[in-house]
Batch of 2 targets.
Target 1
Amino acid sequence: MPKTRDVQEVEAYGRQALVRLSGDTLFLSLFSAGWKVVAAGCTPRSDQPYNCLLKGG
């Protein structure tokens, strides 16, 4: 599992968000109970979607 420290950047797009930490990238979705992580351990790939270790819905 990646080691994380500080939040580097947050981008929100309606009910979806991307959170970049010092050692990880997370994707969140807004549900009626609040924000929940739907993908973690994500790394960017050139001209392709992120590759994530954990995915859920």
Target 2
Amino acid sequence: MTIRIGLIGAGRIGASHARIIARRVPEATLVAVADPRPGVAATLAEPLGARGQTDVEALLGADDIDAVVIAASSTAHAELIVSAAEAGQHVFCEKPAGMSLEEIDRGIAATAKAGVVLQVGFNRRFAADFRAAHEAIGGGRIGAVRQLRSVTRDPGSGPSDPDAVPPWTIFTQTLIHDFDTLNWLNPGARALDVVVTAGSLTAPGHPTLLDHATVVIRYDNGAIATAEASFAAAYGYDVRGEVLGSGGMVTAGDGASTSMRLHDATGRIAATAHGDVELMVDAYTGELTEFAMAVRDRRAPSVTGQDARAAFAIAQACIESYESGARAQVAS
């Protein structure tokens, strides 16, 4: 059974997902792309053998679509999840699954009521090195987890238009990947509280922009984690993780698009990735393949709405900590 997919949102990530579904996921077929901007969906979809349309509502519940991949603006995620579930369509949604815990809970409830799959796009879980680290930790290879670190650095010199960056983006859009990764690499533990240091270093004095942040998270198994984010890594996109245990350490990620290393007269050179689409293409393929297989096999995916909720609860606590200047509790 091939899963017929409709994609909502033809921006940067949506375009990447469309090409991956059409070319790299044999379990799925890209049927349609919907984006309200005139001509954008058709330009993306037609070379991939799919139809493009501006009417998102018409895609939801269409007879020739089994499942939707939501890559629209984050503020629309929750409503689209609910609408797709009510139409009987399975849902893959890019993170975050909503802009509040209440929104995420509505999406979880709607998909559960409809009996459809809900998977959220935390791609790091499908990167080979991060998955190997997770398996090593779960297999007891490093003993009890004690300290964790996760890093996300976006390429460039910072936002070209700081006013266009929504408040709290660094927590709800960027570090939310790190929060999920840390939860996943500390299996069975729950985040208790956070303390945040953040600021605008590329546009000093900007009233709402936060472009660098460090978060310290305390877990109920005693482990301490740090999550770091930067919007201005001149050398390229950088995603890394590290876990120290009682019996060893495991690391993942090095910011390179290939494991090849060239040693020549100028020193050691590696190909640095300059974007998440480039660095994480195999991880994106893995998560979309899992989604298609979960729909086909009528089973729960490995990344659920509850995982999305747990990560967002940390992001919400980060906002509270930044505003108060004090440690903030993570909602259960």
